[in-house]
Amino acid sequence: MSNQSPFGRKPQSQPTLPKGDVLGTYETYVEAQSVVDRLSKAEFEVKQLAIVGNDLKTVERVTGKLTYGRTAATGAASGAWFGLFFGILLFLFSATPQIGFVLAAALIGAGFGMLFGIVTYSLGRRRRDFTSTHQVLASNYQIIIDPLLTAKAQDVLAQPDRPTA
After folding, report:
1. Which of 9, 52, 61, 84 could potentially form a cystine with 106 if both were Cys, beta carbons 3.0 to 4.6 Å apart?
2. Would you say the pTM of this structure is higher than 0.85?
3. In Å, what is the CA distance from 85 to each residue of 37, 96, 101, 132, 156?
């Protein structure tokens, strides 16, 4: 007896693409997500759905020039947060809690973060002198559904939206 469902899901170690019918194709992930949300609100078995992004592209948007000042500020900020976390732990678990623990830990963290940021930037300076953000975008998104549930899902989506209270 096979553990595989008609939807193509079976216990395995390697990821596979879901198999089934295409319920719809949408330009944005938000559109596909809203269809799944609508089905969920109608008590549909959403475990039998998958949103598949097609024609994936990596987009790197350059956000600015990387300088020693920017690196120092970023390092100091992240170090301060880290120090603040440890300062709060010291404050909470100290026999004689003092707010000075928190401030000192944040300042020490900022100093070490700034130093670490500058050293790291100096070592790799000529390889990357800009900051950026990465995104993975798809050309379209398809909702894949178990073929046994396609008609039921189409019926639910054909009904007009009911306003929620």
Report:
1. 84
2. no
3. 37, 18, 11, 27, 49
